[in-house]
Amino acid sequence: MEWTANQLRFATFVRDGFGCIYCGRSSIEDEAKIHVERLDPEDGDVFENMVTVCKECGETKGALPLSRTMLGRFTAVIGERSRRFHEEQRGEGRA
Fold this sequence. Notes:
The chain is mostly helical. It has helices at residues 5-15, 55-61, 68-94; strands spanning 34-38, 50-54.
């Protein structure tokens, strides 16, 4: 499925529960300013590479790359969330 930038951003927010993947703060419960960024800058703007990050964690991390160990952990979590998200979307289409 080809998404617009806004659709990709919103789907990422939904998949990640409108919360920061690093600290867990929520835009809903904690009123944190959450944005979407690439998990691995080299992998581009694909759903499985996009994550939600709060302003504070984004500023702290900056342009520093994640270690390969941390990148592997986040990739596994995001992959599972993405799989569930797609299953839910297909299920809604059948109803």
